[in-house]
Each structure stands twice: as C-alpha cells, then as structure tokens.
Amino acid sequence: MATTTTPTTKGFVGKRVRRTEDPRLITGTATYVDDVTRPGMLYAAVLRSPYASARISSISIEKAASLPGVSAVYTGEDVKAVGPVPCAGSMPTLRVPHHKILAQDRVYYVGHPVAAVVAIDRYVAQDAVDQIEVEYEPTECVADPEKALESDAVRVHPEYDDNVAFTFHAEGGDTDAAFAAADVVVSERVTVPRLAPSPMETRGVVAEYDEGTEELLVYSSTQIPHLLKTQLAVQLSLPENHVRVIAPEVGGGFGSKCNVWAEEALTCFAAMDLKQPIKWIENRRESINVVAHGRGHVDHLEMAASKDGTITALRFKILQDIGGHHQLLTPIIPTLAVIMIPGLYKIKNFTADLTGVFTNLPPTDLYRGAGRPEATYVLERVVDKLADKLEMDPAELRLKNFPAADEFPFETATGLSYDSGDYAKAFNIALENVGYDSFLKKQEKARSKGRLLGLGISTYGEVCAFGPSPALPAGGWESATVRVEATGKVTVMSGASPHGQGGETAYSQLAADALGVPMEDVVVIHGDTGKVHWGVGTFGSRGTAIGGTAVHLALEDIVAKGKKYAAHILNASLDSIQFNQGIFSSNEVEEKLTFQELALEAAVAQKLPPDTEPGLSATRFFEPPNFAFPFGAHICTVEVDGDTGQVEILRYIAVDDIGNVINPMLVDGQLHGGVAQGLGPAFLEEVVFSEDGQLLTGTFMDYAIPKAKDMPWIESERTVTPSPVNPLGAKGVGEAGTIGSLPAFVNAVVDALSHMGVEHIDIPMTPQKVWNLINERSQS
Amino acid sequence: MKIKGQQTLTTPREQVWEALLDPGVLARALPGCQALDPVGENHYKIRMKLALAAVQGLFEGKILLQDVQPPNNYKLHIEGAGKVGFVNGEGHFHLEKLSDVETVVHYEGDVRIGGMIASVGQRLMDMTSKMMIRKFFVSLKEILSEQ
Asked: Are A168 and A316 in contact (CB under 8 A)?
C-alpha cells in the first residue's frame, strides 16, 4: 500500500474549507430540539429515584395531579404496555433484565425514572414532580463492580443467581504455551472510571401525534434517527411508516445519543395519550446522572515476551460495570476492547475474558472511543512495564513489534484484518518531532537537579468506520441520495446523522468536486426520516468512510447518468463525453452543456434518450467489506511539580493516520476534541458514587471536564495511508484522539516518577494523588 | 458521613437530659426545625428545612429514640425525605457528669444523604453538619440559661 504524507488535492476535497454549518451555529439561528415549538405544546418532567436500590411500596399522585396546569401524571403502571428499552447485545450468556420506560415495583439506581408529569410549562411540571409522593423501602445495594461479583454480594436483580450480566471469551493462538515459553511476563491492573459524556446540548424530545394521519412526529437529539424510528414503532406498537423522527441540530453526542432512551418513548406515549405535542428537555443534573456513562472498567493485562523484546502473548481480563440494566449497546462496547487488545503489535496469542456485572448504578454504554481507549490504555501501560523489565528503550520495543508496511492486510490474533498502515513511519515522525533522544538527556539532567520530567509514548490502532453489516446489530451500511434540482442546485441526502463533526461541509466538498458546482449550490439534508429514506447514523467514526462513500457513489451515478443524457443531447457518442469542471463536452461536436443546462434538460425531459427516465437523481448504499483501522502515535512530555503534585504538559505530539482526508480543518477539530476527551479522564474526570450508590459528582463543580486552559498545544501531523476498504480511502477520525491521548499522558507521569519506583498510577491523576505518591516515596 | 464530638454545658446533667428529650426544646434548638410533634412514646414527627450548598428544601420525617437510659444514654434514629432527596441517620448521645453543675454531651453518629442534595452538596456536608451542630448547642445553651 502506497504511503504518502501529502494528500492529492483537486478542487475542494483535501482543502481546509470553512464549515458550512458554522454561520447558523455561531449566530444563534440553528434549531435544536429545545428551539422547536408546536401549537399547544406541553412540557414533561421526570421524577427519579433518590435510592440506589429500593422497592416502591406506593406512589401517590393526587397532589401533583391536582396542581393547576398539570395535564397528566404517569407512573410505571400507566406505561406498562410500552415496549422495553431495547438492548442489541446477543451473546449467549447475556441476561437482559426487564427495562420498562418507568420503574415498575423496584428501582435499581439513583436517577431511575419513577414517574413523569406533563404540564403547561417546565416549571409547573417540575413543581408537580416534587408533589408526587413515593414511599420507598430501601434495600441493600452494591455500587462497586468488583464487590458485586463477590459470592455474598446482594443481587441487583433478585431473579438471577448472581450479578453477572454476561461473560465473553475470545482466544487466538496458543496462549498457555506462549506464556510457558516466555522469558519475561509483566502485568498490570488498571481502573478506568466512569465518565459522563456531557454533550453541550443535553438530551431532548418533542413528540406530536397527528390524529388525522395517525402519524407520530418525533424530534430528538439523537445520533441515530432511523434506528430510533424503528425502535419507537416497536415500543409503541405503531406501524413504522407512521413514525417520523427528526434529529434537528444536535449539540454533540460523543456516543451518548447513539442510544434509544426511555424518555423518548415516554414523551411519545404521553403525546399520543394526551393528543397534544409534548416537549421534554433533560437538565444538566439529569445528564450527568443518568446519560449512560462511558468506560467503568477494571482491566487486568498480562503480557509474555522473549528476551529480545518480541511480545508473544496476552492474557486480558475485563470487568465491565454494566449498571442497573442495559442500554442499547452496553454489552457490546467492551467486546471492542477485546478485539483491539493487541493494538499495533504482532501478538500471535491471546485470551480475553470479559465479565459484565450488574451494579446499583446508572447504566454504562458507548462514549467516544468505546472500549478502544480502555484496551489501548492497559496495553500501552504494560508495554512500558515490559520495556522497564527488559531494560529496553520503550520506543525501540514498540518499533520491534509493529507489522511492517508490506505485511498488510495484517491478520490479528483476534480475527481482524488491519486494512493498511505504516506504523513505524508515523511513530518515527512522532519521535523525531518530540526530539526523543535529546529529551531523554534533558530528563536525566533535570532529575539530577530534582526536577521531575517525563515522556510518555502511546501508539494506538482503532477499529472504526462501522460496518460491515454482519458485525453490527442493525446494519453497517449507509445510504445517500443525490438529487439535482431543475435549476442545477444539488441536494445531498445522507442517512448518516452528523452532529457537530462537519459532515455537511465534507459532503458538500465531495458534491462540488464531483459535479463542478460551487459549494453554495449544495444543500445537505440529514437527520430526518421523512426526507432521507434510509440510514443507520453517525457513530464509530463512520460518517465519512461509510456515509461519505455512499454520497460519493451516488455522485458517480449522477455523472454517469448526466453523460448519457449529454451524449444524446449533444448528438455525440457516449464514450466521447467528458465531464470536467461542470461542463459536458465531446471532441466530436463543438456544442457543450453546462451541468445546470443538463439538469434542466433532465427535468423537462424533452430531449432524453429513449432508454432513460427523467430526473437527475441517484440513490446508493455503501456496504464496506471490512472495518477501517486508523492508527497513530501520541507522545506527551510533562513536568511534575514535586511540591504540589500538579502535572504540566510541556509538549503534546500527535501523528495520526486516518487515511485520505477530505477537509484537514475538520480533521484537526476532531483530533483536538478527541485529545481533550482522552486527557480529561487522565487527570480530571471521574464519576464518583458513594458506597450506597449516591452520585457525588452531580454538577460541573464536582465533575471536572477539561477547559481550554487545561489543554496543551497539540503539535499535530498526519501520515496518509489510504484505506482500501472504501473508494474514498478514508479511515475515520472521530475517536482517534481520545484513544491515543490517555496512555501518552499516564505513561509520561509514570515516567517522570519512575526513578522513585513508581510503576503505575490510577487515573484520574489528580494533584492530590500524585503528591501523595511523591510524598510516600520520598519518605520511604 | 461520620459525626463525632462533645460539648460541655454548665448545667446539671438531669436538666440537660430533660432538655434533650423535650420536643419543645428540640424544636427550638434544631436549626431549621419547623415542627416536632410527638406521635407516640419516643417517637416524633419532624418537619425541617435544610440547606446544603445551592440546594435547600423541606424534609419531613420521623425521629425515634431508642435505648433510653436516663440520664446517661440514648440512641436517636432519624429519617427524613423531601423534594431534594433524603436524610437518614443514627446518633448516640452520652451525658457525662463532670460536676454538679457541669455536663459533657458526647455525641457520635452516622448521617446518610441521597438524591439531589447528595449529588450537589456532598462536598459541603461536613462543613454544614458541623455548623448545624454548633448552632444547635448555641441555642440549647440559650434555652438552658433561660430556665
């Protein structure tokens, strides 16, 4: 596979084109769910459990229902007929406890929805929520995944014998033999705390039921409007062609809106019941509390190697905190950690054992990176430990274990086929950019003066651009329609549902280049099941590689169709027709046709060839033959303040390879955001619960997400190894930064303290934690 | 959260004991207490306004006194719930006679909060509870000095 550091550019593709979405976003003219109003609209609010585990002995709604302005109060009994919140997991051992949209007789976690009020405005609704009287009988709870596995642990779901939600085993090669033959074995246990996805826009739903057409119109802040449409139809027993879902402007999701939420069906149920439009907007406290947390892992990795540094085998154990019940993809997410545990290394033998465990905590599910940051984190920690044990340079150790550039497609022990790459190249650029050798000298010098400098390396590989379909519960394809209007304007409809990534810009670039039209002539429509006929959604870094490819294919069809029409109209042979910069021409005739003229001819249909149909429109689906595998190397240098434990990032080097790039500016934005969401948990973010399951980090005062001042300057560079699995050669970039950054930071801090005998520090590395460690070590 | 401490009062032990078990006195001394009504022997209904960080609300609940051993010891069990969450706790009070006119009140307990007040106010709980205990004893001393 050819590797080049400069993408080929033509027209708009490959250029730093400004985002077409931004004018409306930065002038306050964009329409988010909360901007949607409908005549006669009412507002919903949800009552949530204050207990982590309790039986509901009684609910009294009389006071709430009698408040002026209250239209309805619903409890679990009222919504019994609504179908359960879906879980797409299908492993044979999977236990799926019942998950009604409101609690029935028990609550499983603090924040569990217990009742809902619909009222004339948000304030009355909230006041009424406060008037609902629930008598709980608190029961013993378990709020720690490791404790939940103990034999005498209280059971989250008494109907099961224990708290195991599922187990999953995978293996490749002969791990036991490799460990028996190993010269060295190293291991580490890491915890990856729960993270609150915290999109800027919280969840929100507006639902309206038209009694005449019997159509349910749903606005939801979702990443997956098409899948949501299907699920709502099932949950509410509606014919699917009577449900329309619109994802208007979506203010970030990071995976948290790639879900089907109880509140979505609840709002729809109420709208159908009351025959009035209803809006529900989640508040920030609810968002931090119940929007499925990411991560929640306790991971253990054992690594076998030979003396020369060849890594021969891995034994991987994952404990995934599920929470009280599953959300859409809860059990699937940690399996991504399993398949990516070898990272970029040629490790032939592995076993992985994954246990999902129920706790009396809110559910976990996907969050940017989803399983892959956890795997990369523990792997890169253990690689550093191995280097330490072998007294080998950690950079050299990594280089030694990469597959060579000519070994692609590279088959992993976990059954994947890495599409393309040149891992050593990207890694060497990162080493050069950071000035690896000179930093090591500087570090030594600084240490002699008592300063604590550290350098952390992380290489990462990512499985993304989901499909292919057999690997996904709901299809891995994407659809696109390109419709050329009679006036030559171009409408692109995508089944992907971008929500901040800049997909409209990228698709416009593709269309403008393919059709030779100005970008302003292109309108991209997405996130509306009434306008876009089929779609899967935007998640798993698939918007460009899969969604973009579908657009690309439809554009190719348009050009082919246009050429056919042009040949007939120009009276030239089809083979002679050229289409360049928006002009159809032929060396057989002098006359030319502009794209716009052709569009009009296609619409009026007076001069079309007999074997064609009018209209310049094409719909294509793209089903990838494989995942795509971006990769890269992130290197971070830090200085730790021995007196305060504060870590300062000195330099942050990122070299990423995400395949071909449509818009480097969009890619930079994705990488920067990704790095921020990887560094956040490294030293700030952690959802904390008390032993009795109470959320202790319920506001941004206590749940610390990184701010601009916490972020380093990111020195970013890219290598480009086009992916062979889609014609755009794109791999995906949404999650790359999040996966690469956490281990780089952690390895850097551990490196800074390594001469004190520090081998590992659990995240988040708060100054307090780091200081305590330094203090302990300097006293002992 | 664990609470432990002591307060010395310049009042004879029997008088302190009576005051601590007098709903009228408690209602006045407990910060934010709006009502404390007996519903049975050693069993009271309580309505209290509590503020923690930015969250405040009315709590309704019950207080149970157990193992009452005049004038030495008693255990107090409290359960309260309101719009913003719940408060549960147990406390053990021990009255030590220092002299005929001096009494030390030893207290030790465990308080649990839940719901919104926990998620928003947990970090201020320690400070708030210390402040409430201080206020309680200031009021108690005032009441005792009036007697």
From this structure: no
Look at residue B6 and tell me whether its pLDDT is greater than 60: yes
Same domain, A503 and A602: yes
pLDDT in tens, B42-90: 999 999 998 887 788 899 999 999 999 999 999 999 999 998 899 999 9
- Alpha-carbon dihedral sign for residues A437, A441, A442, A446: positive
Q: In angstroms, rounded to a whole number, what is the distance separating the alpha carbons of residues A418 and A408?
A: 7
- What is the value of ipTM here, to two decimals? 0.87
* Interface subset of A 101-130, CB within 8 angstroms of B: 110, 130
Domains: count for chain B = 1
Cα A61 to the center of its chain, rounded Å:
39
Give chain B positions within 8 Å (CB) of A696: 118-119, 122-123
Place of tokens 């490791």: A146
Domain match, A744 and A698 both: yes
* Contact at CB, A285 and B119, closer than 8 angstroms: yes
Q: Is the domain of A522 the same as that of A617?
A: yes
Is A699 part of the contact surface with chain B (CB cutoff 8 Å)? yes
Domain annotation covers residue A158: no
Tell whether A63 is within 8 A of chain B (Cβ). no
Residues contacting A442, CB < 8 A, separation 6+: A453
- In a domain, residue A171? The reply is no
Please indicate, yes or no, whether residues A306 and A424 belong to a single structural domain of this protein.
yes
Q: Taking CB atoms and an 8 Å cutoff, what residues of chain A touch B81? A: 50
Find, in chain A, the residue whose alpha carbon is nearest to that of B113.
A694
Residue B34 contacts A, CB cutoff 8 Å:
no
Q: Please choose, from the candidates A546, A345, A366, the residue with its C-alpha nearest in 3D space to the C-alpha of residue A461.
A: A345
| Interface contact A692, partner B, CB < 8 A | yes
In this structure, are strands A349-358 and A70-75 parallel, antiparallel, or unpaired? unpaired
Q: Answer whether the bond into residue B71 is a cis peptide, omega within 30°.
A: yes
Choose the closest CB to A285 out of B86, B114, B116: B116
> How many CB atoms are closer than 10 A to CB A660?
21
Query: Does A412 reside within a domain?
Result: yes
Q: Read off the CATH number of the domain in which A214 is found.
A: 3.90.1170.50
Chain B residues with beta carbon closer than 8 angstroms to that of A130: 83
In a domain, A719, yes or no: yes
Which of A587, A622, A657 corresponds to the end of one domain?
A622
Nearest to A767, CA basis, from A636, A638, A647: A647
Summarize pLDDT for B100-115 with one digit per residue, the tens.
999 999 999 999 999 9
**pLDDT mean by block of 10 residues, chain A; 780 residues:** 41 96 96 98 98 97 98 98 96 96 97 98 97 95 98 97 98 98 98 98 98 98 98 98 98 97 98 98 97 98 98 98 98 97 98 98 97 98 98 98 98 97 98 98 96 98 94 92 98 96 97 97 98 94 96 98 97 97 97 98 95 93 97 98 97 98 97 97 96 95 94 97 97 96 98 96 96 89
**Beta carbons of B122 and A702 less than 8 Å apart:** yes
